[in-house]
Structure formats: structure tokens, C-alpha cells
Amino acid sequence: MTMPKQEAKPLERDPLSSGDRGAVTPAVGVSDVSVRFRGKNRDVTALRDVSLDVAPGEFVALVGPSGCGKSTLLKLVAGLLKPSTGEVRLGGEQVKGPRHDIGYVFQRAALLEWRSARRNILLQAEIRKMPAARARERVDALIRMTGLDGFEDAYPHELSGGMQQRVALCRALLHEPPVLLMDEPFGALDALTREQMNMELNRIWRETGTTVLLVTHSISEAVYLADRVVVMSPRPGTITEIIEVGLDAEREYGETLGRPEFRDAAAHIRDLLGAASAHD
Ligand SMILES: Nc1ncnc2c1ncn2[C@@H]1O[C@H](COP(=O)(O)OP(=O)(O)O)[C@@H](O)[C@H]1O
Ligand SMILES: [Mg+2]
């Protein structure tokens, strides 16, 4: 299969046509967004004219050089930052302040050392005042889904880096958010653990049907996991190109990495980023 490419400019979509992403309300809608940070001596334009629609259930990866505004883009979606111009929508509704219906996973798991794995996950329920019975049910299901069985009562210092990130993922998914934001979640893990987490995330994404926006520096991680990979330019961050990966949702790791669709997409993204600005 060849790899269809899309122009980064806002897509003209006919809302009445069926079978394309424009036919449904995007889970995440970013329209003509720019972000400028005002500094003492100079202003920094972090993002310029960024437009991106993410369909419900879609997995989109963002790659680009350091400082190109990837984290800024996630913060806009979470409502932690306001765009200088343009608009961000979640499920069709404009984001006007911090959103509690999203899940967020960072590079560091940021677990509370004095709480067990289970009680770290339950923190989300306490913050959101979820009914206790539902929270317990969700925790049990997520612990099984992420393979944390047997480690529920362990404290963070007793868990490996991969397990700590699984706990962070469970915490982010507890309230069944329609959108999961992940900012280099596996960047601190060793290569083998990272591969394993990639396989698990692919399965969890398929099982939960949640929309995922993942920032990563790894081209192979982006291509293995995503439906589409958004390649960004150096600051001020703009979208250089959006690559459709064209693989089935269920992806066996080794087999997928050997597929022509995977290799073509990865090679193309590497070209776009330039050898110097990306490491894998
Ligand atoms: N709160 C802030 N105030 C000022 N500048 C910021 C702030 N947050 C980010 N920046 C700047 O905006 C640019 C984009 O940052 P960021 O989104 O963190 O990039 P990335 O995640 O792609 O590495 C960088 O130049 C960064 O220094
Ligand atoms: Mg960042």
C-alpha cells in the first residue's frame, strides 16, 4: 500500500459527506491557533497557525524538534493555556479553562510516594468525587488491563519505571476521559520496557476506544502507535505535514516494524525532521 499524504493546511471538508473525518464532530478541534509568550526582553512565538482535527477514537502522534510547541499544543487542549489567536474545541465545545474530562500522562509518573499504586490511581476519583463503587470497579478493571495485578499495594519506590507509568496511565484513564493526552510518556524508560509499553498502549487504545494525542521524540513509537503522525517545524511551531500511517489498528510489534507501510512512513518522517533534529 502506498502512503497517502495530506497537506498541513486546514482541510476543506464537506460536513455532509460520509466516511471521512469531517462527517463527525472532532474529539479535538484546533483552528488557526497561534501562541505567543511575552518575555521581559523578547516574545516567543511557540505555535503559528496550527489547525488540526482529531476524530473520536483516533490516535494522533506529534513529532518535532525540541521547543517547537508540542507540549504547548497539549496544554491548549487541556485548557491550561489560552491561544493568542484561534480556537480549541473538545467534542465541539470551545475550551475556555482547565478541563477535567481529559486524561494527562507526563514523562514522569509523578506518583505520591506515601500512597500505594491502587491509592495513587484512586486519587483521580477523589479529585473528581466519583462514586466509590464505580471508582473501585474502574480501578480493578484498569489494574487488570495494564497488568498491574499483584502490585496494587506496592508503593512507588517498589515499582519499576514501566510499572510507575502504568499506574500513571491507570490514573489518567480512571474517569474514562474521551481524550487522553500523553507528553513523552515513555521517554524515561529503557528501550525494551518502552517497546512493551508501546504494545500495551496499542491494546489499551483499542480496548478503550479513547482518542489519543501523543507527543514523542521516537519516530518508530509514533508510527507504530498512531493513525496519523503530525510532523512539526522548529519554532515557531507549524505543521509541516500530516502522515497517514495506513496500518490496521491491531499491530503485532515485530511484524508491524517490518511492514512496508511502517518503513515508508518512518523514512518519510525522518526526512522531514532532518537527521540532526531527531533521535530514535
Ligand atoms: N510558559 C512559558 N513562558 C514562556 N515561554 C514558554 C512557556 N512555555 C513554553 N515556552 C516556550 O515556547 C516554546 C515551545 O515550548 P514547548 O511547547 O514546551 O516545546 P516542546 O514541547 O515542543 O519541546 C519554547 O521555546 C519554550 O521555551
Ligand atoms: Mg515538551
UniProtKB/TrEMBL annotation:
SUPFAM superfamilies registered for this protein in UniProt: P-loop containing nucleoside triphosphate hydrolases (SSF52540)
Segment Disordered: which positions?
1-25
The residues covered by the ABC transporter domain are: 28-259
Q: Which domain of life is it from?
A: Bacteria
What keywords are annotated for this sequence in UniProt?
ATP-binding, Nucleotide-binding, Transport
Query: MF terms per GO, please?
Result: ATP binding
Q: Which residues form a coiled coil?
A: none
What SMART domains does the database record attribute to this sequence? AAA
Q: Where is the composition biased (Basic and acidic residues)?
A: 1-15
Name-wise, this protein is ABC transporter ATP-binding protein
Q: Which organism is it from?
A: Streptomyces sp. 900116325
Q: What broad taxonomic lineage does this protein's source fall under?
A: Bacteria, Bacillati, Actinomycetota, Actinomycetes, Kitasatosporales
